[in-house]
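Support case: pyridoxal-5'-phosphate complex. Customer-provided input:
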Amino acid sequence: MAAVSDNTELSATLFDRASAVTPGGVNSPVRAFRAVGGVPRFMASGDGCHITDVDGNTYVDLVCSWGPMLLGHAHPEVTAAVQAAVSRGTSYGTPTRAEVELGEEIVARTPVEKVRLVSSGTEATMSALRLARGATGRAKIVKFAGCYHGHVDALLAQAGSGVITLGIPGTPGVTEATTADTIVLPYNDKAAVTEAFAQYGDQIAAVITEASPGNMGVVPPVDNFNAFLARTCKDNGALFISDEVMTGFRITKSGWYGVDGVEPDLMTFGKVMGGGFPAAAFGGRADLMAHLAPEGSVYQAGTLSGNPIATTAGLTTLRLATDEVYARLDETSATLQRLVATALDKEGVPYVIQNAGNLFSVFFVESTEGQQQIRDFAGAGAQVLPRFAAFFHAMLDAGVYLPPSAFEAWFVSAAIDDDALATVETALAMAARAAAAVKN
Ligand SMILES: *Cc1c(COP(=O)(O)O)cnc(C)c1O
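Agent response - structure generated as follows:
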C-alpha cells in the first residue's frame, strides 16, 4: 500500500499558479514547506487514514488537517450527515438544532457551563480575551512563549528583553500599543509567573495557556503547572483561560482536562469539534459567560457562527468519538512512538519523544547526553533542523505525510490500521538513515 512515486508535477504546477495569486502560494503559512524545502503537495482526496495528492501519490496521514480528522477522512457517517444537512440548505442566520446539540455535547464533555460557537480557534481565543477583560475590568494578559493561540494581534507578541517585561510585537502589522498589555513568560516557569503577578497582579485580566502545548512540539506542563496557574489567578482576581483548541476532544473525551482535571475559568475549543469544517467555541463559568451579548454587554458575534453544516460535522464526529476510539488512538500513538524510537535508535540518531496523551512529537536534539525533558520554547528550539528536513522528506517519499515542521505535534486518527503502521515502519527505516546522514 501507498507506494509513492516521486512524481510531483501537478502539485508543482498548482503551486506555481497558487503563487501567482496568493502570497507564498498557500492560505496558511506552514503548508508552504518553507521549513523543510520542496514542493508542497496539493491533496485531492482523503479516505480513512490516507490522503492522495493531485499526482496520485497516496500517503498515510499523520497531520489529520492539523488535528480535526480524529476519525480519519471521509468517515461514512460524518459524510452522510453532512450531505443530508447540505441538502436542507447551508445557512439561515437563525438558530438551528445542530448548534444546540453541539453546545450540549461540549457542556457534557467538559467543565464549561455555557459555550458560544464561533468559526475558528483564533476567533475563540480573541473572544475569550475580550470577555476576560470585560468581566474583570483589567487590561493585561499573560501568555507563554511557544504557545500559539491563533493569529490574534495581542497574542502575536514576543518576550521583551527583561525577565518580566511587556510584550513586543511578534510580527509587523501588530502595533506596540496592541502588545503593551501582553506579558510573555517562559512556559513551565512558576517563578516568572509569581514575579509577573507581584509586579502587575491587580492589572492582569487573565493568563492564557495551551492546556498542554503542542505548537512548539509537544511540551506538556510539568510539576502541576496548570494547577499552579489556576491558583495564582484565583488568588489575584485574574481568570485562567485554558486553550484546548488542539487538545480538546482529541486527547480524551474532553481534552487535556481529562488528564489533569484543572478547572479553568474559560476554555477555548476548535479543530476536532468542527469535524473538518470551520467551527470553534469558547466557554466557561455561567456567571462569566453571562457578560456576553445579548445577555451582557461584552459584544461578540458572527454571521456564520454555529453554521448548520459545520455543527453537523462536529456533532457527528463527537458522537462517534467514544471511549473505544480514544483507547484506540492511545494505542496507535504508543505504537508509532515505539516505531520511531526503534528506527532512530538503530541508526544512532539522537532524539527526544514527548507526548501528551495521543499527541506526540519528535525533537531532533543535538545529543542525548545530558539531555533532559524539553520544558519550554528555548528547549524546543535547540534542534538540528536539517536533520528533521531530511527525515521529513524521506518519510514523504516513502508515503507518510508528517507535519512539515520540527515544531509541530504528530496527529493520529482512529482510522490507522496495521497496513498503515507497516507502511510507517518501512518509511521510518529509510528516514532514520536519511536523518543519520545529516551531521550536527
Ligand atoms: C490551531 C490553534 C489555534 C487557532 O485555531 P485556528 O482555527 O487556526 O484559528 C488556537 N490555539 C491553539 C492551541 C491551536 O492549536
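The chain has a mean pLDDT of 96.

Case will auto-close in a few days if no follow-up is received.
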